[in-house]
Amino acid sequence: MTDTTPVIEVRDLTKRFGSMAALEQISLTIPTDSITGLLGRNGAGKTTLMHVLTGQDFPTSGDARVFGQTPAENAAVLQHIAFIKESQKYPDDFKPKHVFRTAPWFFENWDADFAAQLVDDFRLPLNRRIKKLSRGQLSAVGVIVGLASRAPLTFFDEPYLGLDAVARQIFYDRLLADYAEFPRTIVLSTHLIDEVANLLEHVVVIDQGRIILDAPADELRGRAAGIVGAQADVDAFATRHRLEVLQREELGGTASVLVDGIDEVVRLDALNSGLQLTPVSLQQLIVRRTGGTLGGADATAAAPLEGGATRAGFRARTRSREGASR
Ligand SMILES: Nc1ncnc2c1ncn2[C@@H]1O[C@H](COP(=O)(O)OP(=O)(O)OP(=O)(O)O)[C@@H](O)[C@H]1O
After folding, report:
1. Ligand 1 atom showing the smallest separation from residue 41 Cα
2. pTM to 2 decimals?
3. Are 282 and 217 in contact (CB under 8 A)?
4. What residue ranges do the domains of the chain occupy?
5. Rounded distance, CA 216 to CA 163, Å?
6. Which ipTM was obtained for this model?
7. Residue 143 CB burial class (10 angstroms; 0-12, 13-18, ≥19)
8. What is the pLDDT of residue 3?
9. In this protein, which residues make up the domain named ABC transporter (predicted)?
10. Which residue puts its alpha carbon closest to atom 30 of ligand 1?
11. CATH homologous superfamily for 8-208?
């Protein structure tokens, strides 16, 4: 691997289970030393992708490279990876102290002091059998291994399902602080998008086995907005700028739309046109993109708003009670 080789490079990867394609012709690159959010609805294909990337499963076709090499049965690659998932299995009589004692055998960068500090932070009982731990305590074991291993490539697959809000915040804080000191590549799969939004530098969204968003988080943050104003003005504006309308609601003569494709010129024009712009969170954008209210096919049909789109058809397709004005 050269300095410029991305840590993860996937080309035209398909993974089938029988006739069902869990991943279909996906391509993506994950930047070195970045925190990437791997997001998507249940069954989207996130865990399947992580299984292929961590050598636990083979692609049906296409190519997945990790540190420039094929990961499956490749010790040189796998020794640099930590994969933390909720369903981690441990030997029956194991206690957390055994997990942390054996971790350095697998992770050459293991930091025992950092692990001890995290045990305190999460108030984890070291001497209780893993089988007897609460769900949150079990999640904490995985999170501690993921952080203190400082593996060059760390996957967290919804690692904190059982953690309470305070413990999750501790995880985010420690992850960010440690990452600043020891940069590495982290891929985090989660459904708590708003909670992790500020952590992410890159976002990949999978939907039904296909990648529908792959972009720097900063780019996504400013890209969507709510636009509120007189119906005719809002419609004319969306058409003029060919904005992709992900959601729309009407009340009296006022329309409120959630659009994707905003830039500085569009923002300025909105303000000059007397329209109100409202922020849209990463979570709102992803929910709308992956089928919230305006479900997949409908959303695609509604956008982009070409000149030929009639307002009546537009209204019929996009009526909704939730969304941009919230
Ligand atoms: N071993 C398997 N055999 C058959 N189908 C599978 C297998 N593993 C996964 N699938 C299917 O592949 C699809 C993708 O599953 P995957 O676990 O990757 O989704 P996910 O995005 O991680 O979902 P979640 O957010 O619910 O964890 C699902 O439809 C799932 O049922």
Report:
1. 25
2. 0.84
3. yes
4. 8-208, 222-318
5. 28
6. 0.97
7. buried
8. 64
9. 8-233
10. 43
11. P-loop containing nucleotide triphosphate hydrolases (3.40.50.300)
